[in-house]
Backbone:
């Protein structure tokens, strides 16, 4: 397996992606972007990139905060994430810079999907929101040609970006959700279902009972805060993702 660190830029901000792919042949292949949780790109996302490479894709772990910008505590993580939650246009621009970097990679074909965890789940949904059917609206992306063809949110946040009229979404969407997640309540689930339906998206949502936020993170054990690893949901969600990627990426 080949791995590399790849610098790319969003205006003056330098970012550093972690890229992984099997190098037994030199043929281009679909890529899967990985959007990190609120602490920034970590070994968690890098290991996901390697696992995706084993499945035959280019695993491309984005760096949405910028090179070297990482959180070491809940307080630091919050300070890194909050500016992007407050300015979703800035987040959109950063995500599109990462997408553009992946599109330029010599091993990446014209099909790209995105997955994300926690804050990264929101990022994955935001990339789906700009992958529109018309390609000529405020979202500034043209479906499968210039956007992602599929997006997977693992225990993600659902807040809409509120950046003007939402064009019809071309990207297929899979939401993998813990029903007991305090950061995405049943009311939030109903709201995003309506949003995606109104945008004519091809969407599906898998909700895991008795499952909290961060259910894919083996190191998470803070049930008092609604943060808890769940091995069964982790396994089921990864399998669902694989099925989805096989459909959208071929």
Residues:
């Amino acid at each position: 397996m080949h791995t590399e660190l790849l610098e790319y830029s969003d205006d003056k901000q330098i970012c550093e992606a972690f890229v992984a792919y099997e190098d037994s042949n030199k043929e281009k292949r679909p890529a899967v972007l990985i959007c990190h949780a609120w602490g920034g790109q970590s070994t968690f996302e890098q290991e996901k990139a390697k696992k995706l490479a084993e499945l035959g894709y280019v695993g491309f772990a984005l760096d949405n905060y910028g090179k070297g910008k990482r959180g070491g505590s809940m307080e630091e993580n919050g300070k890194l994430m909050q500016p992007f939650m407050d300015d979703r246009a800035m987040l959109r621009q950063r995500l599109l810079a990462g997408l553009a970097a992946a599109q330029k990679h010599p091993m990446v074909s014209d099909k790209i999907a995105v997955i994300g965890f926690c804050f990264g789940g929101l990022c994955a949904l935001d990339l789906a929101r700009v992958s529109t059917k018309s390609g000529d609206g405020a979202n500034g992306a043209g479906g499968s040609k210039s956007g992602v063809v599929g997006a997977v949110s693992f225990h993600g946040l659902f807040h809409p970006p509120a950046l003007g009229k939402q064009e019809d979404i071309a990207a297929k969407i899979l939401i993998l959700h813990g029903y007991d997640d305090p950061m995405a309540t049943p009311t939030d689930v109903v709201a995003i279902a309506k949003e995606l339906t109104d945008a004519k998206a091809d969407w599906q949502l898998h909700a895991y009972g008795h499952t909290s936020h961060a259910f894919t993170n083996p190191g998470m054990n803070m049930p008092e805060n609604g943060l808890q690893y769940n091995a069964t949901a982790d396994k089921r969600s990864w399998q669902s993702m694989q099925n989805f990627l096989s459909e959208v990426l071929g």
Remarks:
- Residues 2-249 form a domain with the Rossmann fold fold (CATH 3.40.50.1820).
- The longest helix spans residues 231-249.
